[in-house]
Amino acid sequence: MITKEQFDKEIEIIISNAIREDVGDGDHSSIACIPDGVRGKAKLLVKDKGVIAGVAFAKKVFNYVDKSLKIDILIEDGSEVSYGDIVLYVEGSPKSILMAERTVLNAMQRMSAIATKTRMFVDLLKGTRTKILDTRKTTPGIRALEKWAVKIGGGENHRFALYDMIMLKDNHIDFAGGITKAIIMAKQYLKDTDRDLNIMVEARDLTEVKEILQSDGIYRILLDNFDYEDTKKAVKLIGNKCLTESSGNINEETIRHYAESGVNYISCGALTHSVYNMDLSLKAIK
Question: Locate the Quinolinate phosphoribosyl transferase C-terminal domain: which residues (predicted)?
């Protein structure tokens, strides 16, 4: 997994790029009609129901735009919210508040939607040993935000990107000439480059599970598009030799069945690629 330093750097890049994209050479609407030296206050208002996420990110954005802004947080990340709740107040230069407004709202609306959906899946898994994972099916440029939101919702992060895990999927296996060849080459690569990365291998059926198990040092086997019965058989075959993960068209109706099959993890791209933004707004207080 990526380090805290790497993650923090990703967040810094997201903020600077978002402000660059939105502000350009200036917020001319605010410059035109708001006098210098005026102070103002605004509230971040919830107009929906779910799990709030992105509060800590919002604070970073406001501080990036103007360190003199005063932020009073009333509701923390991961809390259940409903219509009419006030998440935070921000006070200071209205020009600065409005410069940060859209970046804050865009991020928090999406992050809250992801956290809400993740919490729903986490609740569906209660009583099992299975953990819910996100995937790399994220919005280009804001992966760190979306994976952060999954954590806030109670889920766990899969690998962050291509560089922090060896994950041998069907295309890698086919291009390499087979599962065993791909594993051997991956291990040799790690040795040659002195890298310490976990190796995960995708299986498309029980025959491939058996072949993967012939190699030592596999961190996790991904059971891709297995039905319930084959998932149970695979989990029994694998035992304690490595961790197991289910993936492939898993939704709120099927997730519990896969968890009860005994897998350690279930990965679900829908956590990040199929959500509806939570309705939030930033309103000036007169």
Answer: 114-283
Tally: H helices and E strands in the chain: 11, 12
Summarised one tens digit per residue, pLDDT across range 220-258 is: 999 999 999 999 999 999 999 999 999 998 999 999 999
Using alpha carbons, list the distances in angstroms from residue 14 to 31, 116, 148.
25, 22, 13
- DSSP sequence for 46-106: E-S-EE---HHHHHHHHHHH-TT-EEEESS-TT-EE-TT-EEEEEEE-HHHHHHHHHHHHH
Strand (E) or helix (H) holding 282 = strand 280-284
State the pTM of this model: 0.96
Q: Tokens 């309705």 label which residue?
A: 279
| Nearest one of 217, 223, 220 to 186, comparing CA atoms | 217
For the cut 90, the answer to whether the pLDDT of residue 259 exceeds it is yes
Q: Which residues are catalytic?
A: 102, 137, 169, 202, 224
Cα Rg of the chain, angstroms: 23
Alpha carbon separation from 191 to 166, 195, 196, 219 (Å, rounded): 13, 7, 9, 16
